[in-house]
Amino acid sequence: MQSNIEGQLSNFANISNDRIVYRVVITGGPGAGKSAAQAQLSAFFENLGWQVYRVPKTASFLLHGGIRISEMSAIDFDTFQINLFKVMIAMERTYFTLAESCKNNCLVICDRGIMDNMAYMSKDVWWNVLKRYNWNMVELRDNRYNQIIHLVTSADGAEHAYNFTNTTERTETLEEARELDRRTIQAWLGHPDIEIIDNSTDFQTKIQKMIKSVCRRVGIVLHDRLNDQYKKVKFLIKPPLPSDSVFPPFQDFEIVHDYLLCNGQFPSKIRKRGQNGNWSYQYFQRLPNSIEVRHQITYKDYISMKMQRDKRYYTTIKTRRCFFWKNIYFQLDIYKSPNNLKLKDLILLEAYSTHCGNEMFGKLPPFLEINGEVTNDNSFKLSNLSLKSIKN
């Protein structure tokens, strides 16, 4: 009966005129950027109005319970992998069922998938598991997920970035990471839609390629937003805003930012982002190469980190309105708190685009009154807007 249930749940995404349910696996070797990739992919589709479910990494879930793989015998390790396999199926089933009942378009992001287990198990144990539970490769690999995106480990082509990870779960050397990466690719070989994204570009371009790939598969045309050469532009908006009826379809989110105490020169901050009382929590870390990495965190982590809030900065609260205009994705930030001279009635419009100058002004929403471009004005950076004392 278990096999029949899993077979029913493993059907491809429900794509109709009404809604889409799409299952994507983000996999890859150690230190590939999977966590950051999932966070950005999730935020991107949420801003489109999609419901997004993120199936957590099952191995991390179990290891956080005190399991120590280094202390296991070979037999115990194989037993652990079998149980990991079963827990993973149960967890995915929970999210897949929720997605099928969702009224809106729904993206299910899996932090690794069933076939990843094959990279960590001996062939004999793997095939014995399939035989024991009457599972088969086609159902587990080909029919269960719509798309597989393999992010190549930073140990292969971006070795300088491999040591920036803070996870205590990663113990692999560079060569071990490369080997696991190769084995993971082989485990998914044969899936009808697998894409391998290497480290031939910088990390942010790597993420853009991933998002663009998913958008292409579900039929979302966002050529400008996902162009490799796009850049962030920012404009000052004159209040008051027009009525909601003037806007194209939009999604509003409440966002709360707090800066944290920092010993180094790179500031970090936490954010909670919510809609209709449902919140997600992120930690933003600035790396030495000027890349800001976004980490999805739990509510418990958020509360704990908030105790380290840097009191030199205000807590900033704003409403973010996300919408499309002329195939450009815009984010309109309406600041609510603190109600001081710097933030009172402040409204900023942001977008990522390849357009610039007069060409970009011609793409701006005509229903908003533009007070000028402030892209390169440091006084409109969040770190300066939040600072209680004026920076010189």
TrEMBL record:
<dbReference type="InterPro" id="IPR038727">
    <property type="entry name" value="NadR/Ttd14_AAA_dom"/>
</dbReference>
<feature type="domain" description="NadR/Ttd14 AAA">
    <location>
        <begin position="23"/>
        <end position="205"/>
    </location>
</feature>
<dbReference type="GO" id="GO:0035091">
    <property type="term" value="F:phosphatidylinositol binding"/>
</dbReference>
<dbReference type="InterPro" id="IPR053227">
    <property type="entry name" value="TRPL-trafficking_regulator"/>
</dbReference>
<dbReference type="GO" id="GO:0005525">
    <property type="term" value="F:GTP binding"/>
</dbReference>
<dbReference type="Pfam" id="PF13521">
    <property type="entry name" value="AAA_28"/>
</dbReference>
<dbReference type="GO" id="GO:0070300">
    <property type="term" value="F:phosphatidic acid binding"/>
</dbReference>
<dbReference type="InterPro" id="IPR027417">
    <property type="entry name" value="P-loop_NTPase"/>
</dbReference>
<protein>
    <recommendedName>
        <fullName>NadR/Ttd14 AAA domain-containing protein</fullName>
    </recommendedName>
</protein>
